[in-house]
């Protein structure tokens, strides 16, 4: 093998004008925030200082992969895998992405060294006028020059010694200030197994860089070649893999941009809806407060009106009482102390006064009551465009003014539901307009007072109540309807329950001749006949009633109950007509 002395990755090149070195984050540790010191590359491709990784708290996991971990390129990465076994594995979490990192047998120091990060740190130090760089030989003094042949950073003293040695006399020395624009100034990468040898070869079988001593030792008879000769093949495979990964990066960036846009739109929408909620609630609160003020003002007006009415009634009754007392006291004094002549003389005036007082009409009950109710669930219309609830009512139902209505009020049929309506009114005879009153209804047969009929009362919420019941047997029933345990107007009353309605089995026709199609034997309940042996009625003939009627019972009303008794005595011809 002939060594190519121009390594493809180890060149010293100038950065294009105006170009900075990659990402500043590639030179500082994410944990200690300082420049990298012995940086280690984790499987998640994040770089952390060796000392920082050693300070992380490890945890134990079960390794079922068999053999050692493959996270180190200088240790166990290229060793042969052992048979698959269950064994404890020590791991840590990446301090950047929290990915699990399984440590190799050598621990943190067996992880791959990030030489690219070390090169970036060296360039970063050069831009700081050499601060932080020490001599690679004495490790004491600051660096002044760099040997391009050995790729070593040297102080002034070691540089002079380097030139005096015969082996290194002709090595090229460069000032550090002349390297500030370079893209790479990294140190040679030495073999971990042979620290005196530089890694210049690559073992294809083990897929790892090796030195010359490795080739003649552990990797004897393995296909090896210089790194500069194999970099193209391996670089192309990495580039192909990169081409497959880059679209995912773009897709993820677009997805994140969409998520960011959606999140921004979401925040904007949430704020807009929040403003709508605030505006609505503030308006609603104002409407409720305004409605509250109106209700309180209405309540105050009712109080003043009722108090004025009571005061007026009180004054009238007090004046009437005073007049009554005056008349009574004067008359009593006259009858007990006056002489016969005095009584007769004043009799006319006294009689006239007492007669007039006795004719004065007055109410022994207060003209108004304390009845004031608030219905919070009652709709009160719109206020500021909002539907509000709550109404104050002074109406009180008066059972004596309540009215019963309905066709089934005084009649019903057995086993058929009867209905009637209770209309509640106040003392002034006005409809209550709202429900909620205590309605009591009882339907009891007169001959079976211990067997009341089940009743149903439906509150229509408008001051009316629908009452229904289903009597089981015909007869006379007594109905009680009470409001607040007081009978309403017309209660109690009786209802006559008749037998179940009988429908007509016949036909409603003009005559038997027409409805039977001219059959001579067909008869009709009206009793009419026709010449020529026709037993049924016909237009203008004997017995025809002169208008449409039922063939079964002879009734003239189409919607009526049938009164035909039926039975075995009925003529067969009449039954046949009925069937029509």
Provide a descriptive summary of the structure in words.
The structure is a single chain. By secondary structure, the chain is of the alpha+beta class. Helix content is 30%, strand content 19%. It has eight helices and 25 strands. The strands form eight sheets. Strands 16, 18, 21, 22 and 23 form a five-stranded mixed beta sheet that branches. Strands 15-17-20-19 form a four-stranded antiparallel beta sheet, with no helix packed on it. Helix 5 packs antiparallel against helix 6. The longest helix has 111 residues. One of its GO terms (cellular component) is nucleoplasm.
Q: Mean pLDDT score, rounded?
A: 82
Main pleated-sheet profile: 5 strands, mixed
Strand tally? 25
Q: What share of residues is helical?
A: 25-40%
- Beta-strand level of the residues, as a percent range? 15-25%
Query: How big is the Rg?
Result: 59 Å
Shape: elongated
Structural class: alpha+beta
As residue ranges, the low-confidence spans are 1-24, 64-83, 567-580
Number of helix segments? 8
Give the distance, in angstroms, between the N- and C-terminal Cα atoms. 124 Å
């Amino acid at each position: 093998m002939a060594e190519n002395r121009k390594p493809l990755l180890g060149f010293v090149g100038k950065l294009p004008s105006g170009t900075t070195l990659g990402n500043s984050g590639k030179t500082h540790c994410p944990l200690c925030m300082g420049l990298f010191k012995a940086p280690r590359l984790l499987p998640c491709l994040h770089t952390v200082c060796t000392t920082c990784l050693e300070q992380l708290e490890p945890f134990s996991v079960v390794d079922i992969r068999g053999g050692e971990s493959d996270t180190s390129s200088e240790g166990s990465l290229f060793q042969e895998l052992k048979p698959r076994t269950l064994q404890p594995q020590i791991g840590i979490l990446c301090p950047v992405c929290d990915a699990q990192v399984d440590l190799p047998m050598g621990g943190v120091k067996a992880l791959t060294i990030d030489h690219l990060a070390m090169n970036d740190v060296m360039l970063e130090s050069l831009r700081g006028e050499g601060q932080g760089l020490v001599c690679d030989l004495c490790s004491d003094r600051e660096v002044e020059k760099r040997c391009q042949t050995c790729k070593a950073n040297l102080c002034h003293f070691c540089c002079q010694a380097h030139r005096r040695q015969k082996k290194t006399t002709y090595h090229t020395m460069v000032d550090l200030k002349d390297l500030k624009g370079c893209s790479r100034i990294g140190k040679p990468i030495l073999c971990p197994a042979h620290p005196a040898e530089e890694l210049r070869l690559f073992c294809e079988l083990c897929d790892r860089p090796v030195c010359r001593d490795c080739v003649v030792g552990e990797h004897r008879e393995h296909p090896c070649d210089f790194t500069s000769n194999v970099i193209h093949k391996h670089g192309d495979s990495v580039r192909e893999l990169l081409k497959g990964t880059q679209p995912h990066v773009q897709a993820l960036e677009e997805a994140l941009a969409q998520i960011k846009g959606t999140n921004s739109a979401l925040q904007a929408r949430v704020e807009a809806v929040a403003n709508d909620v605030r505006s609505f609630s503030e308006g609603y609160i104002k409407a409720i407060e305004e409605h509250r003020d109106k209700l309180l003002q209405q309540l105050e007006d009712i109080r003043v009106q009722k108090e004025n009415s009571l005061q007026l009634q009180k004054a009238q009754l007090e004046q009437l009482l005073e007049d009554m007392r005056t008349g009574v006291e004067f008359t009593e004094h006259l009858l007990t102390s006056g002489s016969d002549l005095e009584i007769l003389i004043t009799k006319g005036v006294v009689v006239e006064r007492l007669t007039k007082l006795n004719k004065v009409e007055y109410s022994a009950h207060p003209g108004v009551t304390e009845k004031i109710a608030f219905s919070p669930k009652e709709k009160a219309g719109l206020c500021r465009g909002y539907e509000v609830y709550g109404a104050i009512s002074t109406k009180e139902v008066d059972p004596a003014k309540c009215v019963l209505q309905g066709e089934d009020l005084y009649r019903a049929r057995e086993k058929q539901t009867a209905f009637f309506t209770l209309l509640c009114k106040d003392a002034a005879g006005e409809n209550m307009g709202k429900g909620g009153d205590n309605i009591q209804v009882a339907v009891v047969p007169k001959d079976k007072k211990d067997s009341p009929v089940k009743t149903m009362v439906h509150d229509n919420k408008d001051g009316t109540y629908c009452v229904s019941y289903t009597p089981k047997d015909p007869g006379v029933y007594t109905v009680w309807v009470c409001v607040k345990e007081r009978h309403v107007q017309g209660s109690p009353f009786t209802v006559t329950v008749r037998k179940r309605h009988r429908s007509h089995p016949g036909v409603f026709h003009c005559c038997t001749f027409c409805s039977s199609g001219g059959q001579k034997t067909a008869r009709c309940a009206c009793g009419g006949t026709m010449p020529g042996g026709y037993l049924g009625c016909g237009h203008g003939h004997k017995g025809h009633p002169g208008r449409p009627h039922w063939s079964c019972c002879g009734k003239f009303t189409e919607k009526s109950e049938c009164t035909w008794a039926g039975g075995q005595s009925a003529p067969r011809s009449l039954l046949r007509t009925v069937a029509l």
